[in-house]
Amino acid sequence: MVNLVSDRGSNPRASTNERADLKGPLFPYIWHMRAAVVGSVLFAAACTSPKSEAPPKSDAQVVEWTGIAAAPKLGSENTMLVDLEVQLTVTGGWHVYSLTQGEGGPTAMTIKVAPPYEIAGEIIGPPVEKAPDPEFGIITETYSGEQIFKVPLKLAASASMNPPPIEVKIRSQACSDKLCLPARTTTLNVTPEKS
Hints:
This protein is mostly beta strands. Helix content is 14%, strand content 36%.
């Protein structure tokens, strides 16, 4: 049997000769335990360190929409006009597809408003980035970074004294160079500024 207690009592600074007593029958067991502990720590560290970023659970983590509406102004035919600006912010490495994206591929962006508002003309968006997409086999039109869309609206003049908030529904699909998330509809409620 190996004597694990040194002649110096509880002094942890045992001499080299006293530590040599540990090379008895328990020596292989102690080294196997040390190796197992060190291996477990290294394995746990390797499992918790990210090798690649996990994909987002929804496009809400990579796409943000905000809106601002100017004060209503008098239009023709007993209507009021409201200039709505919708801002898109897309996280780096991701993009969404344009308002004019053709069929046969990803979901094109749409912007709609609920009554009593109506879209009163063409939605003006930023220039698109066009590129061949090998996954869809077509030329895609995308937006990335921060972009502004100008949406002209109208409503009946009778509603303009206290115009209600504008309910805006934006449908878009976010993709990276590795994966696409399902298309999602975001609803904004934008209050026009006071005149």
